[in-house]
Model the fold of this input.
Amino acid sequence: MNSLFSPSGYQEILQRIDQLGPDSQALWGEMDVAQMMAHCVEVMRNAMGEIQQKRKTLGYLVAPFLRKRYYNDIPFQSRNVPSTFKVTQSKDFEREKENLLNRLENFHKNGQEVCKGAIHPMLGRFTPEQWAIGQFKHLDHHLRQFGV
Done:
């Protein structure tokens, strides 16, 4: 199973991000490529406990049915799902790419320690390894959104 903690999973994501350009077009969704990268940074900040959001009431109802989908080996299939971390303002491609690459390196190197207390706004607490699998899947989903 791919994970941002594994060297191969980390390298795969880095190589795919390198294929993105400022003119990369989304196959679905409303965010452009720079907004997507900013969104992924915010989601990773949540996983690392830097952003603390109150757990959504709906999450307590749906989490028992959806939690395992976050860290199983099946890629995310749903498109256009509302997000707590939606980015709508314009972003600079190069800056967001650099932010994402820096965040990925930090997650890969330090995630085992910093993901321990993080809470997903809908699905609750995960182990660091579950976070690493879920973050890989989240990035994979958005990279597929842009054809890489």
In short: Residues 7-21+31-76+84-145 form one domain. DSSP finds five helices and two strands in the chain. The chain has a mean pLDDT of 92. The longest strand covers residues 119-120.
